[in-house]
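Let's practice the habit of predicting before peeking. Look at the sequence and jot down your guess about where helices and strands might fall. Then scroll down.
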Amino acid sequence: MKYDLIKYSDEMAGEWNRFVANSKNGTFLLNRGYLDYHSDRFPDRSLVIRDESGRIVSLFPATSTEQGVLSSHGGLTYGGFVTGADTRAQQPLEWLELIAEYARSEGYGRIVYKCIPHIYHRVPAEEDIYALFRLNARLSVCNLASAVPLPGGISSRMGKRAAKRIVRYGLSVEPASVAEI
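Done guessing? Here is the structure:
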């Protein structure tokens, strides 16, 4: 399939936000209101990927640096591809190749891609990680992501096993105390 890579413009905000709301992995941080809040410090270089029919298939919230780097949005700790419910494994590979071609044509020497942690996904999917692997991307940073169980309990079998491990290893979550300096 052929894709069109389009630079984001303010006229696309409503369409962008609707896509994020219905995506597999979008969060409120990826809405335009939040991203645009950072526009004074991070020049927006976000990209929209459309299929042949003009339908958005993915978003890439991005910024750039003076050092010639196109990066997942600099105002966020993450910001890889926001994907639709019908995204398949091959597509992010094609999208990354498209972005690499775009980056070269715009004079960027490097791309920094910060994956959206899977704990934020509405539908578990890591097609982008597979694509990065296939393209021989280099892991330069690995951040720890943790989740705290909510009072409603854990309903999945895997979640219940994780909860048992927490008890077995003596882990707990408690409010932090603030030390005065």
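How did you do? Residues 90-105 form the longest helix (16 residues).
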